UniProtKB/TrEMBL annotation, chains A, B, C:
This is Uronate isomerase. One of its GO terms (molecular function) is glucuronate isomerase activity. One of its GO terms (biological process) is D-glucuronate catabolic process. It holds the Pfam family UxaC. Its EC number is 5.3.1.12. The keyword Isomerase applies. The keyword Transmembrane helix does not apply. It comes from Sphingomonas endophytica. Keywords: Isomerase. Pathway: Carbohydrate metabolism; pentose and glucuronate interconversion. It catalyses: D-glucuronate = D-fructuronate. It comes from the Bacteria.
Length: 470, 470, 470
């Protein structure tokens, strides 16, 4: 027998009645505000073509590494989840994959994925029974049928979700065709790109050479000389700004930065493009490029985002069989204080520069990031990220950073997602957790109730818009 | 005047009435379930001989390093606690030691030792006044008298505690006489061994040579050749399985693993047994042996437990005077992501292998262990361990791991104790803390009440039995 | 319109009514006890001369790096806050600076600075409206007027604050003139010094040579020989003890200690004073000197305080323009277990020695510091320090240390402040947070109510007085 699915209006609020009452009041203020999503990884082609999605599995299961990593960890084969092998086709039909997912849905108890998915099921598709083995087909058919209707096309959902701003992320070697098509279409949705140059910076990535060739082609610069390479970045940053971008994004293994002389840069770059680099060179080049990007941000006003600390594709067997982005990225201990100093020696006192720092290593929140952001004018704290974008993770972020960095050195919420349908769910969780945190401060007489209202608006909207210069 | 000792039925439940009510309901479901103890260090001789224990001090004080480390830290001499010096006899009579302990019992306020001891005093010995200087003799006499009765023999207490399964731990060079005697006795208690080969793997341990000699004798293998040494492990693992073992246990200084070629292994092993090793060799050999043990677990199905990160015998003066295991083991920062990769490159995608990871470094829960266990099919998270086997420690474990690894990649509770009488107390604390955590999730509408009931059973029994293959 | 300022009597107590009730009862017991401040950085000249302070800005804003770092982080120029440049004068008049501060006071929401300042404003100056742009001049004038009255001279406030004991900190090369003047004045306030020899130990400090010259002059020892240098320390420690000091204080970049032979010490020292040292020598010399200081503490009974882990003056641009101590000190990851072993090998089992350990790296509380302090007789845990001297920081300190180290291996609260007026506010926050923590233990039946009363007194007074030998 199916069990009811019912999103409780008090979910994520503390049980204590006084605190819950305050949280409710705060949430009433900001729960329905439009969504500002300044950092994410949705596919701009969706909004360019407004094509219908195909079925429940290809939309909700196969692309979501949060979901299939958990199933894989419990012994489910990716083949049984319709996850394609390298260059191959899914080994299972999508309905069979959905049934496997549904039959294992209890594994997500206590995880944010469960909360996001239930929100999508209830709010986007109108389910009032829970997903389980018994309702697998009902879910699959209902979702797949809905996706065939116009109301579930990307642009319709964008409007229904009340998204005010949505940033995607493209590589420095991306032609931005989808973004140009969005603009040319006359559609009013604000979907803009973000400049992510990792592909032409990380020489250890297997596609570096190809990316660099495209980078040369798109800019007409001699990207094999240091000065030409920098000029190419400047051109592409301008292209991205012309397509609406206000920010850059940098996903490096570490937070290391460098401050080399021009001669040293030229010598290093010659080894990088000459193919004579070693791992230390690759790391040093990424480090120097963060400083170069910061200097360009001083010039052109783009907000810089640094996301270090992930060991990519940790599972060698899975990487061989299924390739990248299969839920096998694992956080590493990450140091910021020594690592960022070379860059900060160059740009640290710039008051018109904004660098947003993220981490997968919560031990640095109170020790390193809050003290840095609570001092340097150019530094701000990005929200709890990836594995920590969860009720407990967001609570720890506030508890560990607020006392040293305050609220005003933070930048609101990022959903950081490829899962378009989960965007409202993710913002809703963040808003509820922020209201719960503020409610505790009010209940303990650490701030006044009217201050909490102001702060709730800031965390939901004001800080985001100002930090990302929207 | 003595103060009352009264175990409150709501202890460890949150004060908020709604949450406490839910916790009570959950605890009613599982509080009285039989104990499954898959990892611990009780002495199997107790159950083989069923001999009576001698007195309160030799049973409860002198062997418990949790207890005497705290007294020592406050300036009490170990001599005054009847802790023997190297090769010597206790400097104090047991009653005098007990009085010192009783007079300092306030030092344990806020510690799990206090909670476990009070549970033992109230539930096992029936005390209704607290231990202090004034009740020291009452306690000593009552306990010592009780121990002289048949009702307090090991097997009687085993039954009274409703222990369904109890694992002990023996070295690879142990003859398993006690376990054979238990089986031969016809007693029905399920007490089984665990294969802990550290003594024949850690060449830096002062008793390595002797252990290796016994290992050779017991297996008839040429343990000075790499292939013979591995064959000896296989034989002994089979001996342990024949004695009921389902698991192995590995307590290394770090989590490092290695994946050397056979030729490299042979060369390294030649240095180890040839006495020409250095500290790097010793570490590399331990690292390689974790991978070898994992490969043997793939063959024979034994569950592998890895417990890294303790600096043993940190206090040089105390080690000189009193020897090992005197409460001077201190946790170290421990890295897992890089460390485990060589082993995982070999066995990571095995779906029938189970490796349970423990840590003394809580900073890795959310950053490293939960992401690893939330991805790799073979990895599971052991419970909060040693210093962290405490109400706050267990709460942090759940808060820091659940959102990424879920509940189903954990393995229930381990009491990990030498203190047999405290086993029910320790399981009771764990059950209460789990119920409190689940109650908060229910109160905040993050899971349903019926899901919490299922999970409470899983954490107490289902996950333990499945993970340890009982 | 001005908003009311009203210090709620229940501030910082948990919202749950049961727990709050217990916290209130505990706070009634200890909230009004005299202040014991064994570690801080107020200026003894204030108490020697009893001169009036000048105005609100020079007393409350310009010297407080907690305050101006936050304003600076949000783009306010230090020039606009009346913070002097190197050798220069403030670029702004104090009233203008105060207005900038007032207009940005919302930035401090959720920080301890806000809580301390509001306490000072309400309790010391009697304000009943909040500081903001509209009340900036009212605040400036009221405070500045008050400071012109005798009731606001340092000694009068010392009495009004009910300070029972106040330690300041002076360098090994300080003449202690202010302390001698306090004693000579016949004033009854207990203000004593603390021996902080960093200036003559840290050869990397730019003023080392000058400090060493004064050190020689004050002691008459040949401070360029190892034995003379040690003798000079002994003399100055005696001078400090004669001036009332009971403690030493050591602020090193790391917790590293060393245990060199005399010959090695002599060779190292020759490089230090001969100017042929490198960074490794500087670090090794600091390490060795911690062990030397510990040995002298065994001789003379002075309590030793070790505060490692701050990267000083991280902002190169600001250091160039404004010099040291401008809010740019950033915590570093800090290791204790390996670092302290050489020193502990020498003094670890001394039962009459007290070494108090502090950290800016909270990840070591549960992993390293609590296990060390819960074992070694000579080690105690200092309170949550600097960035962590805050409600959440102090709560984490108790939650992370109590279960392993207990309460009795801690030493009560340190305000550690230069901001004299904030001392009552800081102690009040600490007392409230401790009462809240104890109340939770009582509400969850982990300790008895009468034990919590005893512990509240210990944390506020008993442990402080005993640890610092007052």
């Amino acid at each position: 027998m199916a069990t009811p699915l019912d999103l409780n209006p008090d979910r994520l609020f503390p049980a204590d009645p006084t605190t819950r009452g305050i949280a409710r009041t705060l949430y009433k203020e900001i729960g329905a505000l439009p969504i500002v999503s300044p950092h994410g990884h949705t596919d701009p082609t969706w909004f360019a073509t407004d094509a219908k999605w195909e079925n429940a599995t290809t939309l909700l299961l196969a692309p979501d590494h949060y979901v299939f990593r958990m199933l894989y960890s419990q012994g489910v084969a990716l083949d049984d989840l319709a996850i394609p092998r390298r260059g191959g086709v899914p080994a299972t039909d999508p309905r069979a994959a959905w049934r496997v997912f549904a039959g294992n849905y209890h594994l997500f108890r206590g995880t944010p994925s469960r909360m996001w998915l239930d929100h999508v099921f209830a709010e986007v598709f109108g389910f009032d029974v829970r997903l389980d083995a018994g309702t697998a087909d009902l879910y699959y058919d209902t979702i797949t049928d809905a996706l065939a209707s116009d109301a579930y096309r990307p642009r319709a959902l964008f409007d229904r979700f009340r998204i005010d701003f949505l940033a995607t992320t493209e590589g420095a070697h991306d032609r931005l065709d989808a973004h140009h098509a969005i603009r040319a279409s006359g559609w009013g949705g604000r979907v803009v790109t973000t400049y992510r140059p990792d592909g032409v910076i990380d020489v250890e990535h297997e596609q570096f050479a190809g990316a660099l060739a495209t980078f040369a082609e798109l800019t007409g610069e001699d990207v094999h000389s240091w000065s030409g390479y920098l000029a190419a970045h400047r051109k592409r940053r301008a292209d991205f700004r012309a397509a609406g971008a206000t920010a850059t994004d940098h996903g490096h293994p570490t937070a290391r930065t460098a401050n080399l002389s021009t001669a040293e840069c030229e010598a290093l770059f010659a080894r990088i493009v000459g193919g004579t680099w070693d791992a230390d060179d690759a790391e040093l080049f990424r480090a120097q490029m963060l400083t170069e990007m910061a200097k360009m941000s001083v010039e052109d006003g783009m907000v810089m985002q640094i996301h270090p600390g992930s060991f990519r594709n940790h599972n060698a067997g899975l990487f061989a069989s299924h390739g990248r982005d299969k839920g096998a990225d694992i956080p590493l201990r990450t140091e910021y204080v020594q690592a960022l100093k070379p860059m900060l020696d160059v740009v640290g006192t710039e008051r018109d520069l904004t660098i947003i720092l993220f981490t997968l290593d919560e031990s640095v929140y109170a020790r390193e990031l809050a003290p840095l952001a609570g001092h340097y004018p150019c530094l701000k704290l990005g929200p709890a990220w990836w594995f920590h974008d969860s009720p407990e993770g967001m609570r720890r972020f506030r508890e560990l950073t607020t006392e040293t960095a305050g609220f005003y050195n933070t930048v609101g919420f990022n959903d950081d997602t490829r899962a378009f349908l989960s965007i409202p769910a993710r913002h809703d969780v963040a808003r509820r957790v922020d209201c719960a945190f503020l409610a505790r401060l009010v209940a303990e007489h650490r701030i006044e109730d009217w201050e909490a209202v102001e702060l709730a608006h800031e965390l939901t909207s004001g800080l985001v818009r100002r930090a990302y210069r929207l």
